[in-house]
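[job 4471] stage=fold_predict status=RUNNING
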Amino acid sequence: MATHSDTNAPTLEQETAWVRALQEGDSKSFEPLVDAHLDHVRAFVALRIPEPYLINGIAHEAFIFAFNNIGKFDAGSSFRAWIRAIAHNLIRTELQRFAREQKNQLNYAKHQMLADDLAAAPTSPTQVSPAVDYLKDCIDGLPDKLKQLVKMRYSDEVPVESIAQQLKRTQTNIWQMLFRLRKQLKQCVETKLKA
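[job 4471] inference complete, writing structure tokens
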């Protein structure tokens, strides 16, 4: 069953002529390419990401990328296949971004839970003193690089951005390391308190 865009699909010769004209600087030659392939690209994206607000955005980005990189396209080959490959890469990038965002939200939730746990920690002088001593012991048991990180962030109160620059790591990596360190130190103190 042919769709509206398939029945009005340009011939390879027409497409090649539009692409060559575009490569030679005639930006108006891009319009018939968009008209011929927009519905197809939108359908391609919709089948992979059923979020209406993303469908038009990714299709739009695909055509912008194609326009900006038309010099790399081999006139005479399938423009539809090329624009679909571009859309596919944009979809993959969007899905990776979404997965990263979800992971960051999960890490933030874990961090908040840990912060809440630490806020609910014992505060009476008889309970705090051994916990502080145990915390010092646990920190002393860390490898030197991690001890340095704890000292920089919590004793010297160095901002994470500065720590990342000094240690030649990303800020996200430093936040993750600090999150894991706090969790490790909390478990170490709890183990010593139970003993």
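[job 4471] summary: Confidence is low (pLDDT under 50) at residues 1-5.
[job 4471] exit 0
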